[in-house]
């Protein structure tokens, strides 16, 4: 099965469309949370995903927009965007977000937004923190988002050992070995690794290969929509820098 893995779309419909077009043929989309927040088109992104064969889990911005998290825990830009998003969500979109689970298991893959240990909030940026998460899922691979940083964490051989972290590169499918993995596809709608192109991951579950992909999109068009909506200037500016 060919799976398109997306995360942190953040209501960036232009970026989502670019990723879908770039992926070619796929059987299903796995969405790792934060469909909304920051960006200007939450309902459009939700409807686009609903129209595809998909499974999806919740992220902190999805819950923030619904009022299921205290917005005082978000930074000021995220808080403003979540309040705006809350006012924009259609009843159909609200219902969709409200039914999303925290985690899912799809075959030999666990899906979590932050980490398998703390699915909604924990950031896996450092290998030392990622190593602690391997005890919290039983599948061979866990797919996470939240940090907006593409990464591959290779599990420790024994509990307490360090894990190895690698920065994924473009250039075609890579076969997974016998190790256990935590893999982050990066962000569709708000990359933070210095590359403004939308990020995604293609997984072949039969061959057990992964392919990190990047694709440009019309950043200026999204920024114009954000300005019209009076969304935070820093959130608008960061899109062109990927930071």
Describe this entry's structure for a reader.
The protein is globular. Helix 3 packs across helix 4 (76-88). It has helices spanning 13-23, 42-50, 60-66, 76-88, 91-98, 127-133, 219-228, 233-238; strands at 2-6, 28-31, 54-56, 103-106, 109-112, 141-143, 151-154, 164-166, 174-175, 181-184, 198-204, 209-215. It has 243 residues and is α/β, with parallel strands linked by helices.
Percent strand equals 15-25%
Sketch the topology as an H/E string, one letter per element. EHEHEHHHEEHEEEEEEEHH
Q: Bin the helical content.
A: 25-40%
Number of helices: 8
Report on the biggest sheet: 6 strands, mixed
What structural class do the secondary elements suggest? Answer: alpha/beta
- What's the pLDDT, averaged over the residues? 96
User: How many E strands?
Assistant: 12
Spans of 5+ residues with little confidence (pLDDT < 50)?
A: none
- Distance linking N and C termini: 33 Å
* Overall geometric form: globular
The strand order across the widest sheet is: 3-2-1-11-12-9
Specify Rg, calculated over alpha carbons: 17 Å
